[in-house]
Amino acid sequence: MAEPKKRQRLTQLNSTSQTSSHDRSKGQDRYVDGSILRITMKNFLTYDYSVVNPGPNLNMIVGANGTGKSSIVCAICLGLAGKTAILGRGDKAGLYVKRGCQKGSIEIELYRGGGNVVINREIHAANNQSAWMLNGKHCSQKAVEEEVKSLQIQVSNLCQFLPQEKVGEFAKMSKIELLEATEKSVGPPEMYEFHCELKNFRNKERELENAVKEKASFLEKAKQRNERNKIDVNRYYERKRHLDNVELLDKKKPWVEYETNRKDLEQVKRERDEARRQLLTLRQAQAPMMRKLQQIDEQLKPAEAQMKAKTAAIKEASNKCKQKQDQLDQKNKEIDTIKQKLNLKQTEEEDHQKRISNTRRTIEDLKAELAKVGDQPDVTPQINAINVELRQIQQERAKIEGEKTDLRRERENLFAESRMLEKKLNDMNNMMNAKEEKLRGCHRDTHTALQWLRRNRNLFVGNVYEPIMLMINVKDPRFAKYVENHIPFRDLRAFVFQRKDDMEKFMTEVRDGMNLKVNSISAPEKSCSQQQSSRNIESLKRFGFYIYLREMFDAPDEVMSYLCHQYKVHDVPVGNDQTKAMIKTVIEEPYLRVLYTTEERYMVKRSFYSNKINTSNSAVYPSQLLTITLDAEEKRKLEQQIKDCELKSRDIDEQMKALQKEAANLDRRDNELLAEKKRLSELKGKKRQLEQKISTRQDSLRQMEQSVIDLKKIEQETKEKIAAVNSLKVKIVSAFMVQMKLRTKLSMEKVYLALETVALTAEKTKQENDCRAGASELKTIDQMCNRLEQRKVQLTEQCKGHLRRAKSICGMQSNDSLPEDLCKAFSKLPNTLDEIDALLNEERSRAECFTGLSENVVDEYNRRDQEIKHLEKELEDKSTALNAYRQNISEAKNRWLNPLKQLVEQINVKFSDFFRSMQCAGEVDLHTENEEEYDKYGIRIRVKFHSSTQLHELTAHHQSGGERSVSTMLYLMALQELNRCPFRVVDEINQGMDPANERRVFDIVVRTACKETTSQYFFITPKLLQHLQYADEMTILCVHNGPYMLPPSQWDEKTIIIRSRQRKARA
């Protein structure tokens, strides 16, 4: 049954104070520039519409949890252009618009002497965009930020603005961060600028120092390198002098060679002319004898020509005789061939007669053997019986082979199926390993305990389950985020035990013994895993619900029982966007406590007094741990299927062995039958074979008897062939004799000519002997003339070549004469080739002594010398700039450090006084390890809450939460009286304080924040102790929220006071 429609709720924040509204307007001069005069919120977080008017001093904002105290803090931050990250709540501005509204607005009025500043921010929920107005005019967020900055408001500074979610971060601030926040909060405006300037100066100074050191080092190394290279430069120039001498000697050497060759040429010309004169004289003396020899030569020439002709004719006749002789030899060979053919025919006939005789004897023997075989019985029935048995064996063997083929195919199918199943199982195991890796990354202690459990599972009696995140398997990855949002991580990493004694034993081992931080759970004694849901999911589908949380995952019975018992997963429905659209109707259903839409989680609570519904919602964050889904039932089925495959494979192997054994027996019997059949077949076929052999031999005998050779006819043909060849031989012999006679005649004629030639030759020899002496001398002188002529030509070419080479080396043209400077230089050098070569070798040897040198050494030396001069100038400039920077740093340090020390000392005095009033001790000092490192300066807070301890630095770990809250509050109060910022906000910092400390801190806050010299202060708390001391300057803002609040137009402070007094009187 649907409940009545919910009445719209208007939240009114009431302000009670000893001063009236008229007094407030008159006392605006107590506000400082930037103080908050008014905060108006519309459709913002818990507020429909509300106006807050804070006082100029301490504003105590009091209200129960969830009424909207921190919403005022959010309004101050966002209304003054602060970032959502400062608040530590939602990261988008649209999340601060009241649920169900399209837009919300914040308007803040700030005090300023020349006219108040009104800032308005309208936030649109759909696109997270904001519209800004400044003093009624539209503007950009940048303009608002600049206006806020000009009023010295810093909502990002924890020393000025400390929201509830950032209280713990104050103690986590480093000393450096605390110093910067303090400078911005209470220091002069230029103090933080001086600090930043100093840090920049120090960075530049460090850069300049490094640059000066680098330049100086580089300069020193360059000087050292140049000093080392100076020796090489001197050696280079010494080597160059020797090489210049070598070059000059190389230039003179061709000129000396040219001169030497020219002198040799003149000498050769003179010797050649003399030899020519001697040759002419000798030739005149030898003329008569030469004429006689010429006459004899003229007579010898015809005789020698005839001799050559006769020799050619004799050679031709000899060749013809040889040809006839070769023809006779060929005819003799033909006769021998004819006789050999006759012999072969005779031998062949003898062999033919022998084969006929042997064939006749073989036929007689086969006939005798055939007569013996005719008495054996018929073996055909036995062979037929064996053939029948062989066919049966063949059929059985084919049947066995068919069965074996089927078994092999079945085994291959099983193997393929097993491989596929193992691959699927490995994939599942890999997914499980991935889940374990996620567990190790999230909580290493739990992973270590998991490894221990797997090694020692035998120590436990009942069921022990690994961490829940490993045991549950989400059926669809889309469901993972709902399960993970619903079950806290502390339980997702918890071990589940069936028995409590097992759990205690486990915790003793891993937590106490191994010092591991792990969680464990004992499953309910009565299983809740099958507990029924309050409503069938079908009845909820009209709201968009389609599944209960329990149906989204699988888990062992004990694990599911615990989750149903603890987190009611069987009764938490999950819906879609339709559910989101109908959420106002859905939350009125009486049986729903927790539900999910596509992206949000809703918790529904009903008041025990008014039965009104209170809901809260939060975003469903993406899954981090359960995205990997694993079907446990599927895994179990896979393992069982793999085992079944292994059993079937073993059965097939046994069947295969039996079939192979049976096949072996059949093979053995088959071999025996084949051997017997072969023996019988041979016995049966022997008679047929003998008959065939006899028939074959008789046919062969008839063929041999028909093919007899006629020897008489062959002998007659042979005689006729030999007679024909002999007649040809007679003709060849006649022609041979004719050629022999011709050769003999020609030989006699050649002998006569030879005798005549010998006589002439003897006379020629006698004449040659007479003139041999003169001819030898003539020949010698002629050869000399030739040699001298050749030598003259060679020397002429050499002279020309030396001259061209000499002029080329000296860079001269062909028509140029030797320059004067070279003549002078050449005059100082030796004039012979031997002396020049000796001096060249000496100069080259000296130059080669200077090894490893090149012109680059000199260039490098000169370049580095220029670089050294440039470096010296740069070093001087850098040193001057460094000295100037150090002077600037010294001046900036004095401007920053002295006021800072005074400021820190003032804070320390106030902070110490506050702690002393609480019978504790505390101090604040300026801390640095190196006075020159300005980015390492920081404010150190040291506190002592017990007389038996020493002062300890305030950190996020050393002090308790209450002690950190007290220290933070007192430090902020110490800053309060220095009062450079227009207001401070502290949200619920008294949470965690014990009553005594809370009372002391409250008294200090009242005393300090209510002074006329201090700025505006907002102190938010959900509760106040009784009998506290209050001041007239305080403004107490009571926040109430609920469905029965009066609209702002109906609120009357006097009526409320009268009713309160009446209730007290009746009581």
From TrEMBL:
InterPro entries: Rad50/SbcC_AAA. Residues 1-28 are annotated as: Disordered. Its main location: nucleus. Residues 10-20 have a biased composition (Low complexity). Residues 38-230 form the Rad50/SbcC-type AAA domain. The keyword Transmembrane does not apply. It is found in: Chromosome, Telomere; Nucleus. Forms a heterodimer with smc6. Component of the SMC5-SMC6 complex which consists at least of smc5, smc6, nsmce2, nsmce1 and nsmce4a. This is Structural maintenance of chromosomes protein 5. It comes from Solea senegalensis (Senegalese sole).
